[in-house]
Amino acid sequence: MKYLPKINHEIQLIFDKKLEKINNSFLKDYYSELKDYFLSGGKRIRPLMCIAAYNAFSGEKEDQILKACVGTEFLHNASLVHDDIIDKDDFRRGKPSFHYRFRLYHDNYKLKKMVAADFGNNLGILGGDSSFFFGLEAYLNNEFNDASNIRGVQLYEQAYHEVCDGVLIEIDMVNRQELSISDYIEMISLKTGALIEKSTIIGANYANVEEKYQKLLSTYAINLGILFQIIDDILGTFGDEKVTGKPTDGDIREGKKTALLIEARNKLKGAELARLNELIKNPSMTDNDVEEVRDLFQSADVINSSKQLALKYYEEATEALNGLKPVIKEAESEFFEDLLNFVYERKF
Amino acid sequence: MKYLPKINHEIQLIFDKKLEKINNSFLKDYYSELKDYFLSGGKRIRPLMCIAAYNAFSGEKEDQILKACVGTEFLHNASLVHDDIIDKDDFRRGKPSFHYRFRLYHDNYKLKKMVAADFGNNLGILGGDSSFFFGLEAYLNNEFNDASNIRGVQLYEQAYHEVCDGVLIEIDMVNRQELSISDYIEMISLKTGALIEKSTIIGANYANVEEKYQKLLSTYAINLGILFQIIDDILGTFGDEKVTGKPTDGDIREGKKTALLIEARNKLKGAELARLNELIKNPSMTDNDVEEVRDLFQSADVINSSKQLALKYYEEATEALNGLKPVIKEAESEFFEDLLNFVYERKF
Q: Residue A26 and residue B169: Cβ atoms within 8 Å?
C-alpha cells in the first residue's frame, strides 16, 4: 500500500500545525495524545477509497487529494473516540482508548476535583469533538477550487448525519424486541456504509466525475460497507480474538442486533427461539449465558447463512464495479476488486 | 429585538429540513428533542453579533446573513449539550438538559440493555455532535459566494478549537493548585471570548470588511466576552437564583477558577488564605463549607474587585468601538454600545 505512509503523513501535519502554536503543557499533552491515537493504526480504508475514486478518473493532483482524503478518516476516528465512551471500551487497536488514556493521566494531578472516570470521559467527549473539526481542514487547506471544497464540506456534513442516524437506530434497536432484516440493513448501510460511500464520492467530486458514474461508485461503496459490517458481525462473535484483537462476547452481552442474531431468530423455532430471546433480554449475562447463545447460533448454522446474506451485497457491489470498469483506470479497477474480495474473505 | 424571531426561524428551518426526511420514530424523537432544546431559550448573542457586524458595514442581503448567522449558535448549543454532561447539570434554561431528556425517555423501553444514565449520556454525546454538524449548514445553504463561505467554515473550525482550548485549560486548572490572573484571562478569552469574536468576524467576512476594521471588531468582541465571563462568575456565586435560574453553589463546589476565587486569593492573607485553599481542595464540600467560602469571598470584598477587573475590559472594548464609530452605521454603533452596557450591568 504505497499510499498508507502518505495518508498518515497528512494526518500528522494537521496535528503538528496545531501543536506548533501551543505553549500550555496540558494542551500539548491533549493534542499529542490525540495525534498518537490517530497514528496508532487503522486500515485507512476511507482515505484509500477517496484516493482510488479520484485516481480512477483523474489523478492529476496527487498531493492535493492526499490532503483532502483524510477528512473522513478524522470523522471515523472521532466517532470511534465517542463510541468507545458509549460502549465503555477501554482498549482500541491494542492500546488504551482515548478516554482511557486520560483516566490514567488523572493520576498525575495533586488536586483531584474530578473522579478519574469522569475526567477520562470528559476528555474523551472533547477529543472526539476536536477530531470532527480537524477533519474540516481537509477541505480548507488544499488547492482545489472553492466550489469543490464547499461540496466536500457538504458531503462531510451529510456523512456525519448518516453515520449518526445509523448509530441511533442501533442504540434504539438494542432496547427493542422486534427486529427485521430490512431494519438491520438500513441501520448498517447508514452506520458503516455511508462514510465509506461519502469518502468515495468526495474523491469523485474532486475529479469532477459525471453523475452516472458517481451513482455507480455510491452503489459499489455502500454495498462494500454493508458487506464489511456483516463480516464484522461474524468475526465479532466467531473470530479469533488473537487475530481480531477484539473480545468475542461483547456483541452478545450488549444484545447487539447483528446479522447472526437476526439469522438465528429467523431460523430457530419453539423452545430454542424462546430460550435465545430470554437469554438476550438479560442486561447482565453470565459467561455460561454467552456460551449458550453461541451454541444456539451454531445450531442455527448462522455463520453460513450470514455469509450467504453477505454474498448478496458482494454481488451488488460487483455489478456496480462492472459498470465502472469500461471508464476507469485498470489499477483502480483492480484496487476496488481486490478490496471487495479482501473484505469478503477477511479473518480479522 | 426584531431579529430574535428571525434567528429562531432559521434555526427551526435547519431542523425541519432534517425532520421532513425521517420515517424512523426514534430518529424523529431525537431530532425533535434537539430542535425543542435549541428553541427553548437563549439570548442569541452570537447570531446578533454576526448580524450587527454585517449590517454595520453592508446589510445588503439581510435574508442571507440570517441564514449564515446561526452557525455559531449551533456551535454554542452543541458545546452546552456536552458541557451539561461534563458538569452533570440536569437542567438548562429551566428545562431538562438534553442528555437528561433521554435519561427520562429510557423509561419507555420494554427491554433495557442500557442503564438510563448511560443511555442519556450517550444520546447527549451524539446530540452535541449532530449540532456541531448542523451548524455547517449556515455556510453551505446561503447565496453568498463560495470564497466567503469557505472562509465562514474556516472561522467556524477555528472557533471550536479556541473554545475547546479554553475548556481544556479550565478543566486542567481545576485540578491544579497554582493560579495566575493572566492564566485566567487567557482561559476565558478562549472559552467565552473566541466564539463571540468569531461570530462577529463571520458577519464582517460576509460584508467584506477591511482588515483594520475587522481587527477593531475582534478587539471589541473578545473584550466583551471576557467582560461577560467575569460578570458571569460574580452572578454564578452572588446572583439571585430566582433571576439567573442557576444554583449559586456550583462554581464553589467544583473548585472553578473564577474571577472571585482569584481575587480572593490575591487579597486574603495568613489563616484566611490557608482556610480558603483548604476548603476549595475538598472534592465533596458540605453546605457549610460552601457558606464559609462565600463568607471569605465577602470578607475579601471580591465582588467589587472583580467588577474593577471587568471595568478594564469594558474600557478596552469601548476604545475599539470608538475606532469603529466613524465608519459604521449609527444603529449598529448603538447596538454595540448598548450590549456592552447591558453585559456590564446585567443581573441575570
A: yes
Give the chain B residue whose CA is nearest to the CA of A252. Answer: B113
In a domain, A221, yes or no: no
Name the closest residue on chain B to residue A121, using Cα atoms.
B86
CB-nearest partner of A111 from B24, B169, B177: B177
Structural domain count, chain B = 1
For residues A216 and A320, is the Cβ–Cβ distance under 8 A?
yes
Closest of B167, B190, B77 to residue B124, by C-alpha: B77
Other CB atoms within 10 A of residue A185 CB: 19
Residue A84 in domain: yes
**Sequential pLDDT tens for chain A (348 residues):** 689 999 999 999 999 999 999 999 999 999 999 999 999 988 999 999 999 999 999 978 889 999 999 999 999 999 999 999 998 889 887 889 999 999 999 988 887 778 899 999 999 999 999 999 999 999 999 999 999 999 999 999 999 999 999 999 999 998 887 778 888 999 999 999 999 999 999 999 999 999 999 999 999 999 999 999 999 999 999 998 887 777 889 899 988 999 999 999 989 999 999 999 999 988 889 999 999 999 999 999 999 999 999 999 999 999 999 999 999 999 999 999 999 999 999 876
Distance from the A66 Cα atom to the nearest Cα atom in chain B, whole angstroms: 19
Amino acid at A168: L
Helix axes A259-267, A287-299, angle to 10 degrees: 60
The range of the structural domain enclosing residue A69 comes to 1-39+62-143
B154 with A140: Cβ contact below 8 A = yes
Count CB neighbours of B339 within 10 A: 19
Which member of B130, B175, B177 has the closest CB to residue A164? B130
The pTM of this model reads: 0.96
CATH code at B223?
1.10.600.10
- Is residue B238 included in any domain, yes or no? yes
Distance from CA of A98 to the nearest CA of B (A): 15
Write out chain A residues lying below 8 Å of B145, CB-based.
146
ipTM of predicted complex: 0.95
Q: Is residue B4 part of a domain?
A: no
**Reduced DSSP (H G I as helix, E B as strand, rest coil) percent helix, strand, coil of chain B, to 5:** 75, 0, 20
User: Is residue B252 within 8 Å of residue B287, measured between CB atoms?
Assistant: no
